[in-house]
Amino acid sequence: MPWSRLSGSISSPKMDVAIDMGNPFLNLTLDGFLKIGTVAATRSAAEDTYHMLKRGNVSGHNFEQMLKKMCKEGAYWGTTAGLYVGTEYGVERIRGTRDWKNAMIGGAVTGAVLSAVGDNKKDRIVIDAITGAAIATAAEFINYLT
Amino acid sequence: MPWSRLSGSISSPKMDVAIDMGNPFLNLTLDGFLKIGTVAATRSAAEDTYHMLKRGNVSGHNFEQMLKKMCKEGAYWGTTAGLYVGTEYGVERIRGTRDWKNAMIGGAVTGAVLSAVGDNKKDRIVIDAITGAAIATAAEFINYLT
Question: Which residues, if any, are the signal sequence (chains A, B) (predicted)?
Answer without folding.
Answer: none
